[in-house]
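Can't paste images in this forum, so I'm doing it all in text. The chain is below; anyone willing to post the predicted structure tokens underneath?
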Amino acid sequence: MEKMTKLKNLIEWFEDKNGVLIALSGGVDSALVAYAAYQKLGSFALAVTADYKTLSQDELTTAKQVCSEIGITQILLDYDELENKEFVKNDSKRCFYCRQELGIRLKNLANQRKIDLIVDGTNLDDLGDYRPGIEALKQNGIRSPLVENNFTKNEIRETAKSVGLSVYDKPSNSCLASRIPWGQRITSERLLRIEYGEKIVKQTTKLDQVRVRDLQGMAKLEVEKEKIPLLKDVAIFEEISKKLKLIGFSQVIIDPEGYRPGKINVIAD
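Text version of the structure:
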């Protein structure tokens, strides 16, 4: 009952709004926000997905699928983050520069459409990690209805499942640049190598939660800890290594600690 009450409150949060732009990625958080906004505002709710060249094509495809499921109109913001010098240098404020640029572009679009409200999919669990990008969005006046309605990640997944969103159990993801440690320059070649690398690992292992960290050309494979034995299977690891080297990685290793969100933030070299 509480789950449905929270969903009702989320939908009602949009009650007095004359229109809204939802920053929608391919994940479950922004999908639920878009669903709620569309339930209340219909065609006055618009989903905006930024194709900024560090988002994988799989994420872009999922974002389009989510909008189709909801019935909401989707707008694509097409620009290249690699033209942002502050972002490319990849220091500890990389996410701030990314979201700062996104916030400005969303505000410009909102002004063109005469829309006063922009929202994102930030939830309560996001507030516990180092997330400079959240601060950048706040500075641009972007609100987070999931935070304001006290949604945790688990509650979001349960609610998304109850309303039939196919991404309810989709593993958390982040932009491809997050696979490159701070201080190592972001290039289109590295991003492409990472994207193809993760596809190779996923196709070979059938795992969903995969990171290929690019450490100066060395691929560090990260999967959930209990799945590491699968990666260590000699035949599987040899197949992955061979394919990753073909696309430009110099060496392939397995991270023995397994996947952990935000892990790249603490890798120094």
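The first strand starts at residue 20 and ends at 23. The chain has a mean pLDDT of 92.
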